[in-house]
Specification:
The structure holds two protein chains of two kinds.
Chain A lengths: L1 E10 L2 E11 L4 E5 L6 H9 L6 E6 L2 E2 L5 E4 L11 H7 L9 H8 L12 H15 L3 E4 L8 H16 L3 E5 L3 H5 L4 E6 L2 E7 L3 H23 L1
Parallel strand pairs in A: 3-8, 3-9, 6-7, 7-8
Antiparallel strand pairs in A: 1-2, 1-4, 4-5, 9-10
Chain B lengths: L1 H19 L1 H22 L4 H19 L3 H6 L4 H21 L5 H13 L24 H23 L6 H14 L8 H4 L6 H30 L4 H24 L8 H12 L8 H22 L4
Classes of the chains: A alpha/beta, B mainly alpha.
């Protein structure tokens, strides 16, 4: 179980998350939704240890979480200039012999022998995701893995998430497109007001959509009407 | 328009200098002063004056070939040749003045004429999109050398062959090796993303030690044929080569450490770039020889502190 306990995180002096509590079932796919600026990336950075918490703790199986248990796919993918996709993947250690670059090259249709700077946004996402999968960590934090990907790749990522679950990984994934999460997650956690507002399981997706959008849609409809 | 371009260049130089801090600026000025004296003295002698002119032209050729704003200058609609010549001439004014005060004053005019010819070059060495240009013998975790060699392979090959070919002349190969090390310094200007930094899962100290060991070993293999050749062909001055060789390792360590001393994911450091050049020039200034070692120790300490944020979780 990955447990976030009373976690308070600040960014540039302002509190982004305050006394946040969250329990994540192991071996499940967890979605994290929230408006822009609600603190999804900050929470990932807090769990991964890139941001030092003001207070609180992140525990994995009742002990402080170690970065060695986790991998993080960031929203923005930066790559070292002048290296190819294959060389980039070569930097990642392979804990087990399961990784076969040729299979991933074919699966994601990646030109691994080209310089990464020539890749499209979607290709860069796929390459970064391949590197994360190669690390084979128990907990995977995937910040916007569907960004910039085409329909086919989106579908492949969904199938990959199912495979990761099958292999017993605990995956936390964010997305701006709700359908990508409802199609692949076991639980979806709604981040708002500096904390987790509610956790939804598969059987309550309908309630979630209503909760998330009802108030907002009403307000936006009025604004659109005024604008026209 | 030329005046505006020059103004921008002056502002850029001002920013670079202000990012250096006062003591680095003093070191830079000391190196420039020594360089100025050397230019003045050597231009007074024949045929050394021609060598000085050739070296200055080569430096400007390198800058011209690799400058990244060629397309931008074309977009402004001004005659690019005028802008190039004006910039190179403007920043060469101190060199011109020094040359004009010697009996070989015509070298200044010769250098200016070369600038006109250089400015006609539109060619920019392109980056290759295939792996063929990064030798497979480079260890796969040495991405700096992979990218650096891929981007500069023709220049590196020419210099390496020149270093081997010049072994019959005293000091020449060592000078070329110094140029090569200057090029290698540019491999460390760009900071890798944090996910690459964290792949070794080592705390700052362990990470730095591993990096230094691996890269110094790489340089040893790269440069050993030149040094061994030099010792065989030039036994009389072999000790000088060995001293310079030892200092070059300190310099390389400094280039690596200075990257991590100011590490920010995916950024390059302007202060670091200027400073590495200054430190590299210190090899020719005897009273500044201890500086690379001192700077190395300082950068080591700073890098430990700077990497804490990213690697402390692996303690």
């Amino acid at each position: 179980m990955l447990t976030v306990k009373d976690l308070t995180l600040s960014y540039h002096g302002s509190v982004v998350l305050e006394k946040l509590n969250l329990s994540l079932q192991p071996g499940c796919i967890h979605g994290l939704v929230g408006m822009n600026g609600s603190g999804k990336t900050t929470l990932f950075h807090g769990i991964y240890g890139l941001l030092k918490p003001d207070s609180g703790a992140v525990l994995w199986e009742d002990r402080p979480v170690s970065r060695k248990d986790m991998s993080l796919l960031e929203t923005q993918h930066y790559f070292y200039p002048g290296i190819t996709g294959r060389e980039y993947l070569g930097l990642f250690p392979t804990p087990r012999a399961f990784f076969n670059a040729a299979l991933w090259e074919e699966l994601f249709n990646l030109p691994l022998d080209e310089l990464i700077e020539n890749y499209s946004t979607g290709m860069k996402t796929k390459l970064a995701l391949t590197g994360i999968i190669k690390l084979d960590k128990t907990v995977m934090l995937l910040d916007e893995p569907f960004n910039g990907t085409d329909l086919e790749t989106g579908r492949i990522i969904k199938l990959l998430l199912a495979k990761l679950k099958e292999k017993g990984k605990t995956v936390i994934v964010t997305s701006h497109i709700l359908e990508t999460l409802t199609g692949s997650c076991d639980y979806i956690h709604h981040l708002a007001g500096k904390g987790i507002r509610k956790t939804y399981s598969r059987d309550s997706w309908v309630n979630m959509e209503r909760d998330l959008f009802a108030a907002m849609e009403e307000k936006v409809r009025v604004q659109i009407d005024k604008a026209f | 328009m030329i005046g505006r371009f020059l103004k921008i260049r002056i502002l850029q130089v001002g920013r670079e200098l202000s990012s250096l801090g006062w003591w680095r600026t003093v070191v830079l000025l000391a190196v420039l002063a020594v360089g100025g004296i050397a230019i003045y003295r050597q231009t007074g002698l024949y045929p050394n004056c021609l060598y000085v002119t050739a070296v200055a032209a080569l430096v400007v050729l390198g800058i011209h070939l690799y400058r990244k704003d060629k397309e931008f200058i074309l977009l402004t609609g001004t005659d690019p040749m005028k802008i190039y010549v004006a910039e190179y001439a403007f920043f060469s004014v101190p060199v011109f003045i020094l040359m004009l005060f010697t009996e070989h004053w015509y070298c200044a005019i010769l250098l200016l004429a070369v600038y006109f010819l250089l400015s006609l070059i539109r060619y920019t060495p392109g980056k290759k999109t295939r792996t063929g240009y990064a030798p497979a013998i480079i260890p796969r975790d040495n991405f700096e050398w992979m990218a650096g060699i891929r981007g500069n392979l023709p220049v590196i090959l020419v210099l390496y062959v020149a270093a081997l070919g010049l072994l019959i002349y005293p000091y020449a190969s060592i000078f070329v090796l110094w140029l090569l090390l200057g090029l290698i310094a540019s491999f460390y200007q760009w900071c890798e993303p944090s996910d690459i930094l964290q792949l070794a899962e080592l705390p700052p100290k362990g990470f730095i030690r591993r990096k230094l060991k691996s890269h110094l070993k790489g340089y040893l293999f790269f440069s050993a044929p030149i040094l061994i050749g030099y010792v065989i062909f030039q036994p009389a001055t072999a000790w000088v080569a060995l001293v310079i060789y030892a200092i070059s390792f300190i310099n390389l360590a400094f280039f690596i450490l200075s990257k991590y001393a100011v590490y920010q994911p995916c950024h390059s450091s302007p202060a670091g770039n200027v400073l590495t050049s200054v430190i590299h020039f210190c090899m020719f200034v005897p009273f500044l020889l201890p500086l690379p070692l001192l700077m190395c120790l300082r950068a080591y300490k700073k890098s430990q502190h700077q990497l804490k944020e990213y690697l402390d979780a692996y303690r």
